[in-house]
Amino acid sequence: MIVRLLDSNEDGLLGMEDFARMMEGIKDKRNKESKIIEAFGMYEDMEGSGYITPKSLKRILSRLGESTSIDNYKALI
């Protein structure tokens, strides 16, 4: 299935360009996942609970100049 999707000249094989394009896509996906994990860690590390809590979300967003009630943060989560 991967070969069919990425085979640019439809010869049934992945050439070097096709392979490089596939690997670039994997690299991009891993970079995005890494950034998401890093962002989650920034919130979660506030309390070490393994979850983003309204309290930790409020604390982080307050640092960024955002401020609202804890009920609004609960609604966001």
TrEMBL record:
Protein name listed in UniProt: EF-hand domain-containing protein
Keywords in alphabetical order: Calcium
Organism: Capsicum baccatum
Gene Ontology terms for molecular function: calcium ion binding
EF-hand domain mapped to chain residues: 1-29
Regions that span the bilayer: none
